[in-house]
Amino acid sequence: MAVHLFGAIDVGSYEMELIIYEISKKRGIREIDDIIHRIALGTDTYNTGKISMKHASELRRVLLEFRRIMENYGVEDYRAYGTSAIREMQNSALVLNRLEMETGIHIEPLGNAEQRFLDFKSIASRSSQFDKLIEEPTAIVDIGSGSIQISLFDNGKMVTTQNMNLGILRLHEQVGRIRASASRFEGLVEELVLSRLMVFKHLYLEERTIRSLILVDDYISEVAQKVNVREFFRGAGSTEEALPAGDGFLSRESYEAFYERIKTISYSQVARGLEIPEENVPLLFISGIILRQILEMTGAELLWIPGVCLCDGIVYDYAEKKKFFVSSHDFEKDIISSAIEISRRYNGSRERSKTLEKIALKIFDSTSRMHGMGSRERLLLQIAAILHDCGKFISMNDFSECAYHIIMATEIIGLSGREKEIVANVVRFNHSRFIPFEAQTAIDRERYSVIARLTAILRASNGLDRSHKHKFSDFKIRMKGDQLTITVDVRKDITLEKGLFDKKADFFEEIFNIRPVIKQKKL
Fold first, then answer.
1. Residue 249 DSSP label
2. Is residue 346 part of a domain?
């Protein structure tokens, strides 16, 4: 039986973590060791935009130790990711390059959408509960050090996701600068959080009733997994019914009992009772305040705390890509659902985008040997087709530029910043003039090539549905020589499409050196 040893490294805002996993096709994923080192990088970057020399030196030392541990275990591969403290660092490229030279460990900054997507995968590693819960209206609340993410699921797919800069460490720093008394701490945190949550409720929850809430965080999740929590509740005089039910499931009443308990005793008592470092108690308290307000906002009665971390998502993603197993949850559908929700928000035509998707994906699949792109680029093309008209919500004349800015300013869960930039440019150049590579400086040659090829396919697809009357419900594609023949079998008049297709064909030919032509099959 082949066993693969893998190291997952999370360079977080408050601590660094290395988990060694054993992966096999027969047994799945098993945790071998977990090493945590506390280092408050977020304290630097949230205040100054850079990490101090002291923390940079400590980061280097810990990475060297992580490397030694992985070598001792015989780890065959690893992934190291930096979250909000790293991605908000103004000089991150310089710092990370130097660290890689000194330690041999490459740290990849995670965009927020990528980080939250990996957190989804960590939850999905508990697949039976996850898939069952999201069949009904469910919110995933991901409370990080720098921000929180609230994602709504229903009927097994994502409905919407939004990020807010209300992370635990960020709030702790903000309240600390106010220098208010301890008695005002809870009220100040609530004030900072509540106004943003009310906007979210108004925009996304007015017509939804949330039944369950799934929590991912670093503090409540840690204590919820401990056996001594039950003793902690008993010390508060709670009844057995008010205690955690096991497997990470709690009723809303159980959580309220827990919250009331930690707010009425001293930090040292909480630390002793829950067996956590005392410096973690204020952060646990902030997480507790955020969660209590979200429970109140959503009205959810069931809370599931699966006790997963980013490293669990990292190894799950790695094992899935290396085909150690096939995930029971289709994450691509979540990305597509997120794009459809964005289009809906800007009054995009779902009927029109479905037609454009169908045509574009058929051209992509039929010409795969010609364009050389893979499944990920296919997904980006599909998202571009879904979002092709979102800019018309702002301007009917300058909608290409408007669409570009909407997409760049909107989080698409599961896409990296580079991938989102590709989608935004494909949508922009679908109708506007394509900018030569030499005339721009923001995009590297590799991304530019992908943008050009996907734009050529989307433009051709758009030309086949120029009248928006969905005439090309079925067609065949054949490549021969220097011509790509698109044969349609329709009874409708396609004079408009044939007459205006030449301009789209010119760009397609420029990119692929093959000319698409429309041929109507005689009936």
1. E
2. yes
Q: Are strands 107-109 and 77-82 parallel, antiparallel or unpaired?
A: parallel
**With a threshold of 0.90, does the pTM exceed it?**
no
- Residue 57 forms part of a structural domain: yes
- 286 with 144, same domain: the answer is yes
Q: Which residue has the tokens 């499944």?
A: 375
Residues 6+ apart with CB under 8 A from 475: 359, 362, 464, 486, 487, 488, 489
Instruction: Looking at 205-266, list the stretches that DSSP marks H as alpha helix, in order from N- to C-terminal side.
Output: 220-224, 228-235, 252-263
Residues 297, 383 within the same domain: no
What is the three-class DSSP state of 505?
A: helix
Which pair of structure tokens corresponds to residue 8? 């997952």
Residues 443 and 418: their CA atoms lie apart, in Å, by 9
Element (H, E) at 141: strand 138-143
Residues 264 and 207 both lie in one domain: yes
8 A C-beta contact, residue 144 and residue 13? yes
Rounded CA gap, 454 and 512, in Å?
11
Using the 3D structure, point to which of 79, 111, 143 is the last residue of a domain.
Answer: 111
Q: pLDDT of the chain along its 523 residues, tens only? A: 578 999 999 998 888 999 999 999 888 899 999 999 999 888 888 888 888 889 999 999 999 999 999 999 999 999 999 998 898 888 888 889 999 999 999 999 998 888 888 988 888 877 677 888 888 999 999 998 888 999 998 888 888 888 888 888 888 888 888 877 777 888 888 988 998 899 999 888 877 889 999 999 988 888 877 655 555 555 544 444 444 445 778 888 888 888 888 888 888 988 888 888 898 899 999 999 999 999 999 999 999 988 889 999 999 999 988 888 877 778 888 889 889 989 998 998 888 888 889 989 999 998 888 899 999 999 999 999 999 999 999 998 888 899 999 999 988 888 888 999 999 999 999 888 888 776 666 788 889 999 999 999 999 888 877 655 666 667 788 887 778 888 876 666 666 666 667 778 888 889 998 888 888 776 5
Shared-domain flag, residues 138 and 282 = yes
In terms of C-beta density within 10 A (0-12 exposed, 13-18 middle, 19 or more buried), how is residue 100 classed?
middle
Domain count of the chain? 3
Residues 399 and 481 in one domain: yes
CATH number for the domain spanning 235: value is 3.30.420.150
- For residue 502, give the H/E element and its range: helix 495-512
Q: Which residue has the tokens 């705390």?
A: 305
Claim to verify: residue 277 and residue 176 sit in the same structural domain: yes
Give the range of the structural domain holding residue 172, as residue numbers without chain letter: 126-307
Residues 405 and 483 placed together within one structural domain of the fold? yes
- Could you tell me the CATH number of the domain that includes residue 26? 3.30.420.40
| CA–CA separation, 357 and 342 (whole Å) | 16
